[in-house]
Amino acid sequence: MSRTLDHLFDRNVAWADAKTREDPDFFRRMAEQQAPHYLWVGCSDSRVTANDVLGLDPGEVFVHRNIANIVHTSDLNLLSVLEYAVEHLEVQHIIVCGHYGCGGVSRAITERRGAMLDHWLQPLTMFYRKHRAVFDAIEDPVRRLNRLCEINVEMQVRRLAATPIIENAWGRGQSLNLHGWIYAVDDGILRDLGPHLTSVAERDALSSIDQCVLDPVEPQSAKRRQAIAAFSALALEEEPQPGHDPAGCVCCNGQGGPKP
Ligand SMILES: [Zn+2]
Q1: How far is the CA of 210 from the centre of ligand 1 (A)?
Q2: CATH code for 33-218?
């Protein structure tokens, strides 16, 4: 095997050339400053890269990744990234994004112990053990793991919302949205799990995380939203409401369907 990684340097040159051809000012803009609107807190899994799954260019999303997208409130790495993103970049949205089939989450529910990784996953492991009966009642092991992947996202959004960095930002009136999303590596689609938090009051109004285990939410993808909207439009076309005249209607722009 080669001691150097020349093929990666070659790919880099090809990428930079292609980027410049398609957008001659791209690197000049990159050099001026970064002003991303989003902070992504995701898993280190090599298949879940923020820019790719969001379809964003470099410079558009600030990123922190670790195994199983865990928020440890004593993690200096995460807290430094968070502070910089909130107080200097002034991002408007923080996305905690897990993914189905996560190896880190899977490790948290095995009996194997002793590695540094198990210290890292300890909060999730303890949560799983506390609610083991609920998870074990899910017979399909894939569904069981994925359910814990979803709950892990919920848990980490709450932990993020409990940090003084976020509380202080909300306290001084900064507009800051926290989101909980999950990604499926087998279809490339992001799904919104919640919670969506914009204030301490919203955080404090959440039901307990223990209750969430018993009340799974239906993850919403843009595809699902679009399908529901398309179906609604279709239903409206087939069954016009009494007195509805699409030609002069302000709610459907004359199309007979919902306003785009
Ligand atoms: Zn993962």
Answers
A1: 22
A2: 3.40.1050.10
